[in-house]
Design brief:
The chain is an alpha/beta fold. The chain is globular and about 55 Å long. It has a single domain, classed as TIM Barrel (Alpha-Beta Barrel). It has helices at about 15-20, 25-40, 50-55, 60-65, 100-115, 130-140, 150, 200-205, 205-225, 255-260, 265-280, 290-300, and strands spanning about 5-15, 45-50, 70-75, 120, 145, 160, 165-170, 175, 230-235, 245-250, 250-255, 285. It contains 12 helices and 12 strands.
Length: about 300
């Protein structure tokens, strides 16, 4: 497993523009083209639905399921189910004691549409927590892709978390999959180091620009004799035309430009190129649940 490059593509199926709007145009209009692209390229991935997204867009869930891709869970309404990393006005984290109920309800809503329980999870904004992981473990989830490598900067490969601190290694059954970040660059963001998070680079610049970051990280891992696992997060709204601002209710929301830049045709084109570039270096593509099983199996074999 150490000699291969393993890739997990995950899509956070939520309302448009990072849940700063109430619309589901991305879920409605981008699921089909993304599934078609995956079929064309011969790869699979994981689509993480909020419970509300699943309920309101059952045809999207069914399309993902029937295409052989994985349907995962992404909270109930894109609420903060973990530890807040930076403040967002109007976004208040759940209390730890509230988390189990919310995760159970989110799982139930996705399951009602999917037909069986989802077993892979990602927290909104990558804000996970120990309470979240314990809730997922209780519900027999096999993977969680919430760890923000750019922020904690301690875990560079998947691991089984500790029940008292999800950022540490332990003996839980669930596999925590860190999200790709550029751990080689010099950060210009003291504290958060959020500029290491290379999520939008494929559309704000290009797939080839992102590949430069990926190649640096692959080298970083191999110099430390670590397996190469690249977990990415995307959103369906990135693959449709996005307005620079939205008015609804009693206010106008104008997202930071990096959220809307390059969405639509450019994002789809560059994403296709990214898949080809990763294929060109021999990458193996996985659903999150399949990868978790592979990782756990390899760990058991190594401990014998």
């Amino acid at each position: 497993m150490k000699d291969d490059i393993h890739v997990i593509f995950g899509f956070d199926m939520e309302t448009d523009v990072g849940s700063f709007t109430p619309y589901y145009d991305g879920v409605k209009n981008a699921t089909g083209p993304l599934v078609e692209l995956f079929d064309k390229k011969g790869i699979k991935g994981t689509f993480y639905y909020t419970g509300d997204a699943a309920r309101r867009n059952p045809e999207s869930v069914e399309l993902v399921r029937d295409s052989g891709n994985e349907v995962g869970c992404h909270s109930l309404f894109h609420e903060t189910v973990g530890d807040e990393l930076f403040p967002i006005p109007g976004v208040v984290p759940l209390l730890p004691e509230e988390v189990p109920f919310r995760i159970e309800k989110a799982t139930e809503w996705v399951q009602q549409v999917l037909g069986y329980q989802p077993i892979s999870f990602r927290a909104p904004r990558l804000w996970g927590s120990t309470a979240l992981l314990n809730s997922l473990e209780k519900l027999n989830y096999v993977s969680d892709a919430s760890y923000p490598m750019y922020f904690y900067r301690e875990r560079f490969v998947p691991y089984h978390p500790h029940h008292e601190d999800w950022t540490k290694e332990g003996r839980m059954n669930i596999v925590e999959i860190p999200n790709f970040a550029d751990m080689v660059m010099q950060s210009n963001d003291p504290g958060l180091e959020r500029d290491r998070d290379q999520w939008p680079l494929f559309r704000t610049k290009s797939a080839d620009e992102l590949m430069i970051r990926i190649e640096g990280f692959v080298k970083f891992l191999r110099e430390r004799n670590l397996p190469v696992v690249l977990c990415f997060y995307f959103h369906p709204w990135e693959f449709i035309p996005i307005q620079e601002s939205y008015h609804y209710g009693e206010a106008t929301v104008t997202p930071d430009r990096f959220l809307t830049l390059g969405c639509g045709e450019k994002a789809m084109s560059e994403f296709s190129i990214l898949i080809d570039r990763l294929k060109g270096v021999g990458s193996k593509f996985h659903r999150a649940d399949d990868f978790a099983a592979l990782w756990s199996q390899a760990g058991k074999a190594g401990s014998r």
